[in-house]
UniProtKB/TrEMBL annotation:
Name assigned to this protein: YiaAB two helix domain-containing protein
Organism: Hymenobacter fodinae
Keywords linked to the UniProt accession: Membrane, Transmembrane, Transmembrane helix
GO CC, one annotated term: plasma membrane
Domain of life: Bacteria
Length: 139
């Protein structure tokens, strides 16, 4: 395995921060009730946590680290339910289609960024011997 390039690390952080900041600024400026803003913020935080947990559990399984089936299933459930909750919320929201698209795209950009940042963090914290070693040599 090669170490992650600085360009990809920077692009990952940029995607995460751009998605999160755009989504939150959109919520801040939205003419929604406070409880609606809270719902969309909670969905963002839930989605980010679910996506990072899912990426970690998938990666653990690929590297032979034990992951319980229930945790793996919960990670998938959390990630997919966050996306579904956002979709249902936007479907029923009284927003312009352009606003709905903005929230959907910034949400997905944030999830992608969170997954990429977690992957890069894990790859770059690996000991140097493990970067060039095979998974069997690491174990």
């Amino acid at each position: 395995m090669q170490k992650t390039s600085n360009a990809f690390v920077a692009a990952s952080w940029f995607a995460l921060l751009t998605g999160m900041v755009a989504y939150i600024v959109g919520l801040w400026n939205a003419s929604m009730l406070l409880n609606e803003k809270g719902y969309y913020l909670a969905v963002l935080l839930y989605g980010l946590f679910g996506a990072v947990s899912l990426q970690k559990s998938v990666r653990d399984q690929l590297e032979g680290v034990p992951v319980t089936g229930i945790y793996y299933g919960l990670c998938w459930f959390a990630t997919l339910s966050a996306v579904l909750l956002l979709a249902v919320g936007l479907w029923n929201a009284k927003l312009l289609l352009s606003e709905k698209g903005f929230y959907a795209m910034s949400f997905m950009l944030g999830l992608f960024g969170a997954i990429a940042v977690q992957k890069n963090t894990r790859d770059n914290r690996r000991p140097e011997s493990a970067i060039t070693a095979t998974p069997q040599e690491v174990a």
